[in-house]
Amino acid sequence: MKTKPLVWLLFLVTINSLFAQDFKITGTVKDKADNSILEAATVHVETVKDSTLVTYSITDQNGFFEIEGKSARKELRIVFTYNSYKQLSKIVTRKQLVELGVVGMEINAQQLQGVNVVADRVPITVKKDTLEFNADSFKVRPDASVEDVLKKLPGVEVGTDGKITVNGKEVNQVLVNGQVFFSSDPTVATKSLPKDIISKIQITDSKTKEQEFTGEAGDGQTKTINLTLKEDKNKGYMGRVSGGYGSDERYQGNGLLNYFNKTKRLSLLASSNNINNAGFSFDEIYEMVGNSRGSGFNFNENAGVSLGQLPSGFGSGIVTSSTLGGSFADQKKNEYEIDANYFFAYSDSYNNEVISRENILPTGNFFTNTERNFAGNTNSNRGSANLEFDIDPTFRITVEPTLSVNRYNSLNQNTTESSDAFGDLINRNSTTTREDGFNSGFNNTTSIMKRLDTLGKYIRIRIRNTNNRTENTANLNALSEVFTGDEQTALDQQTLVDRKEDNYTLSARFRQPLKKDVYLNFGYTYESEQEKNNRTVFNLEETTASYTDFNELLSSDFEFHVTRNIPSIGFQMNNKKMRFGVNADWNILSLENADFLQGTQFNKEYRIFTTEGWFNYTFGKNTRLYLNYNNNIRLPNVSQLQPVADVSNPLNIIQGNPDLEPIRSKDIYLNFNNYNWKERTGLFAYASIGFVDDQIVPVTTTDDNLIRTTTYTNISGNYQGWAGINYSKNIKKDTLYTLGFRINPGFNYSKQKSFSNGQLLEAKRFSVSPRVSATLNVKELLEVEPSYRFNYNQTQYNLDRLDDVSFVTHNIGLRTTSYWPRNWVFGNDITYSYNSNVGPGFDKDALFWNMSLGVQLFKKKATLKVLAYDLLNQNINTRRTTGDDFIQDFQGTVLRRYFMGSLTIKFDSFGGNGAPKRQGGRRFYRM
User: Fold this and answer.
1) Distance (Å, rounded) from C-alpha 216 to C-alpha 209?
2) What pLDDT, on the 0 to 100 scale, is given for residue 232?
3) Which among 57, 257, 542, 828 is most buried, taking Cβ atoms within 10 Å?
4) What keywords would UniProt list here (predicted)?
C-alpha cells in the first residue's frame, strides 16, 4: 500500500512526458526603424490559454536568440520585450523548428516621454547593469520562501547553508525595497520572507557607498539582490512563531514579526535553543539541525557564531543561546535614508576535548596528550545604525555608528603531559583558569561626499574611529612538573588586565576627470592607532590568603602607538567594455612601544611603496574577465614585538622580537565569468597566486626536559597558489521537471618555510578537491539533491627525518524533500564522510542522517513537524591535522542524536495603497 502514491506520481509524470514534444524557436531581434541590433532583449514562451511560462532566453550580441523547450500544447505565444520598446507577441504553432527570421520592435514613445507604461508579465528584463526577474513568472509551491524562488532563477545557486551565488559570484547583501533587512546576513531575508509578497527580484553588482553616490560601476566581484514588494503587500504585517521540544530536553523557539508601511519597516525577532543554532531562520524542513550538519570530521573552533556580527557563545561544544533583536528602516527620496538595529544575546557553552600530538624534532620525536574541559557564558549587546542625509542632489553625509557591550565568564581546566619516544613521562602541566571580563566598543564612520560636476569630479572626506575597552580578571592555579629532575613549580595567581584601544583615521579623496570616463585620483590617509595595556599579576599571599604579592616579572604596563601617513595617486578608466585602474601608495609608518614597568622601549620607522591595479573587461552582457594585483604590508602585533619573556607557563616560555620587519605580500587574482542563456550553462573560473616576504614565523626550541622556548623571526620565500572552476548546467522540460548539475574542481599548492627546533623546514603542500552535485525538481512535488566531494592532500618536507604525508577524504551527501501527498513535507539530509588520515582508535567514517516529517494545517498557516537529528547516532567530532613538525589527533564534544516535535504558525495582514512605483531609494542603485 505504501508504494501506491509513488506509483501514481511516476505514472502522471510519464503520461505528461508522452504528450510533451520538443520545439525550437529561432530569430533575430532588431529595431524596426533603423534595423539596429537589440542585444539582451527578453524572449519568453508561454501557453496561450493561461499564460503559463514555458521557457525564456535573451538575445546575444548579434540580436540572435534560440529557445528550446518541451510542451504538450499545440499553440504557444512568444513574447518580446526590451527596455523603452513596445512589447511584441506572436502566436506560433508548436513544431520541431520555428524560424521567425528578423523580428522588428518599435520604440515606445510614451516611455521615452517619461510616461510609465504597465507591461504584461515578463519573466526577465535587462536594464543597464541590472537583471530583473518577475517573481510570479517562476512556479513554486504556494507556501514557498524567497529562497525557493531564487533556486529557479537562471545562473542563481543556493547552497545547503543558504549561501547565494550568481554566475559564480557571491551575493553579499539582500535588500528589501532597497533597504537592509535586519542584518548583513542575506539568509535572514531569503529564508524568512514568503515568495508571494515579492514583485521583482533585481540583481546587480555590489557597490560601495562611494560608487553608488558617484554613479561609478562596481567591480563585479560580488552581487546584491534587491527584493521589491508588491504594492498591495507593502502595507501591513507578517510574522512567524515556531516552538519545539524533544528528547534529552532539547528545545528551540523562534519568533519573527515584520511591519511594512510604504517606505517604513519595523522588524522584531527572538530565538532560544540548546541545539547550537545561534543563527536565525525559518527553514520549513531543516531549521532544527544544529550547528554541525553532516560535519563528520570537521569542527569549528572560531570565537563564537553570530547574528549580525553579534557574538553568541565560544564557538565549540554544546551552546545554549537566546537572542532578542529589533530593526527599523525608513527613507524619504532625495532627503534621507536610515536603518538601525539592536541585538541582545545570551549563551552558555561547554566543551570537552582530547588532543594527542606527535612533535617531530631533529633530535627525535616526543608526544603530548592534552585533556581540556571548558564552560562559559556571555551576555552581548550590540546596536548599529546607518544614517544617510542628502543635503542637496550633489552633497551627501553618511554616519555609521556601532556600539557593543559584552560580559563573559569562563572556567577552563587543562592538563598536558609530554613523553619521549619510549613513552616515558617527561613533564606535566595542569591549569585551572577562571575568567571574568567585560568589553565595550564604539565604532563610527562619517563620510562627506560632494559631486563637483557631471563628469565624475568629486571630493570625499572620511573620519573613522574605533574605541575598545577590555577589563578582565583571571585566577590561575597551575602545577608544572618535570620528572627528570623532580622539579615542581606551583602557581596561584590573579591577573588584572585593563586594555584600551583607540584608533582614529582621517582620509580624503579627490577625483579629477581628464576626459569622459578617464580620471586621476588623489588621496591622503592619516591613521593613529594606540593601545594601552596594563597587566598586573599578584601571587597568593599564604599568610593572608589574598592576592597581594605583586609579581613584577609577569606584570607589564605598556603603550603601543602606530601612526600612518599615506599619500596616494591613481589613474582610472571606465567605459562600457573595460574598467582599468592603478594606484600607488607611499606608506610612512612610525611605531613606538614602551613598557614602563619593565623599563623597555623601542621605536621603528618604515617607508614602503605599494601598488595595486585592476582590469575588468566585459565581452558581452554575460561574459566578463577580471584581473587584480596588489601588494600589502602588515605590521607585527604587540606580542610578537614585546622583548619581555612571558613565563606564565613555565613549560612554554614566549618572548617577542623587537627587530621584526613588516610582512610584505604580493597577490595576483584572475577570474573569468560566463553565462550562456541559450544552453543554460554557467562558467566561473578563477586562479590566484601570492608571494610573501618577511613572513613572521615562530622559532621554538625544546630542551631535554621538553621545555619549549619560542620567539619570532622573519623569513622570505613563501608562496601559495590556488585555482578552481564552477560549472553549472540547467535543464527544464516544460512543467515536468528541472534538472541542474554543478562541477566544482579546486586546486591548491603552497610552499611554507618555518623552523623545527631551530632548524629550517620547508613544506610543500598540494591538494585537489573536485565536487559534483545535482538538483532535480519534479513538478514541485519532489526535490533530490545528491553531492560528492573528493579531497586529496599531499605534504612533502625537505628534511629526511620527516616522512611525506598524503591522505584522502570522501564526502557523499543526499538531500531529498517530498511535497506529496498534498500538505505533507518529508525531508532527509544524509551525509557520509570518510577520512583516511585518522589515528588508531578513531573512526574513519560516519553516516550522518537528519530526517523531518511535517504536515501543513489551516490553509498552510501552520506546520506541525517531527525531526530526528543524527538518526543513526554517528555524529562525531574527530580529526587529524598535520603541521610543519607535528601530527595531531583531536576529539571534542558534539551534539548527538535527539528527536523533536515542533509547531510553526504564520500570520499576516496586508492592505493599503502600497508604495510608490519606484522603490529602493538610494541604496539600490539607479538603473
Assistant:
1) 10
2) 84
3) 57
4) Receptor, Signal
